[in-house]
Structure formats: structure tokens, C-alpha cells
Amino acid sequence: MLNVFIRIQLDALRLCRFPNPPAGAPASKPQMKRIMKLDGAKFFVYAVALASLAACGGGGGGGGSFPQSGGNGAGTSIQVTGTGAKGAALAGATVALTCANVATLAATTNGNGAYTTNQAALTYPCIGTAKSGAISYRGILFSGSVVNFTPLTDTMTEVVLAASVSGNGSLSVEQFISKIAADATFANNVSSASAVATYRAAALDVVKAQLVASGKSDADAEAILSAARSQNFDSATFAIGSDLDKVLDNTASVMQEADGSVKAAVLAAAKAKGDALPVPGSGATGGTGATGG
Question: Is 138 within 8 Å of 149 (Cβ atoms)?
């Protein structure tokens, strides 16, 4: 039996070393004959040998023919979708996102503001912009595969960037990317469901305050924001003309300049909200955040 095991190990090594025959080609005839002639006990030994060699020298970096995940924390390869809008569609906008594992995603919005990126193995969170002329809306993908770019997401991103450092400071998009890439604990905590819910609520509270300051009653302001409160406005799939899009239309006068960019007063209020929030916990550097897919 020992001789059989040694011979089987050699067969397994040959299979591991040359695992990929030409497309559509079966295993070689000698290999197939040896496998088919094995009795039950020997077949079991063969299976054990293959299992022990499945990683093809496992523990090495990136070799072999098996899918690689881990090492840099990369998750499942996915495409990201979403909508860029200010009420009207943000057509022809350039979308670019960078994730915690420094994976990059890119796309251009169509005439309805919708986009689909390239496919990439990403690690959450991912942050980026949709740019069209004078407009540059920021957005953050905390989970899933949908992230929108609107005045609401830009306001929410301002909250997150301010909440990411202590005191009255704020991170730039580039500094946020560096932090999530270097600190896995921070990346996980800033993407937690409870933290994201807090950021959404803070952004909508900023917009509500602007509506009330413009003369709307508290009840009217809440009615205008109802769809945004009941949906995850940053990550819900929506179309132009939908209830969520109407929120953008009905808040444009208090949120947007004539060119569609977000008003400085709105961003300042969002930063103040973020300054008042707890900074997500940080840990040792040298990792990435929550796994995607």
C-alpha cells in the first residue's frame, strides 16, 4: 500500500504542476486509466493525496490555479452600479471609486444618470466622485454593490470625512482612502451598519434644517424628506422621476447653487454634524476593511 500511496502522490503532484490541459481537453489517458482501475481503498488514498495537495504548495503567494482571496483582504469580484442625479440626471458624468484594498472602479453615466463600473475584487468601504462640468458629487459604498452620487450623498460624505478625525478637522477624499487602506479596524467601523445609519440621519438633519430655515414647517420638511428617510438614499437603486429623485428636486433650492454644486453653507453644516460624532475606532495599520461581495 505504501508503494501505491507514493505512486499516487507522484500522480497528484503531476496534476498539480500541470493542472490546466487545453480548453475542452480531458485528462490524459494514462492518468484516467490509473484512476479508473483503483479499487475502493486505493481510490480513497488517491482522494486524500489530492486533497493534501489541493493548494499546490499552499501558503505561497498567488501561485496555483485556484481562486485567490485574502492576503490583502480582497473580496469577491463585483460590478458597482448606481445613479448620478441632482433632480435631473447627471448624464455623461465620470465616475471613479477607490476601495480599502486600493481596487479602482470607473464608469460613465448614461443619459438617465445610471452607470455600471468595471468588475473588481473590492474591499469596503469605497469612496469616489461623479464629475460632470462644475458638478462633483461624492459618494461612499459601505456595503453591497450600489452607490449613488447626488447632493444628498455629497452632504453625507462631508459628514463622514469630518467624523473620521477628532476635533474640528476633516479628511480629504485622498486622506480617507489612505486611512481605510492602512487601518482595517477603522475601515470596518466606519462601514458598520450603526455608523452608516448615523451618517445618513445626520445628512438628512442638515437638509431638514435648511428647509425649515427657508420657511418650511417641520412637518412639511419631513414630508419632503420622507422618501430619503425611508430608503437608503446613498445605496438604493432609483430612477429619474421616482420618489427619491423628487427629494432631490424639492430640496434643490436650499441645497444647490445654480450650477448644481452643493452650497457651501450646507457642507459647512454637514461638517459641523460630523465633528460632533464619535470617531470610528482605529487599530493596528497594515490591512484592509470589510470584505466585499
Answer: yes
Cα separations in angstroms, 253 against 32, 86, 213, 248, 260: 73, 11, 12, 9, 10
Vertex 284 angle, CA 282 and 290, to 5°: 65
pTM confidence score = 0.74
| Spatial separation of the C-alpha atoms in residues 240 and 154, rounded to whole Å | 18
Is-contact 121 69, C-beta < 8 A?
yes
For residue 127, list its beta bridge partners: 98, 140
Which residue intervals of the chain are DSSP H helices?
2-17, 29-36, 40-52, 151-163, 173-182, 184-190, 193-213, 218-230, 243-255, 264-275
Residue 65's CB: how many other CB atoms inside 10 A?
Answer: 9
| Band (216; pLDDT cuts 50, 70, 90) | very high
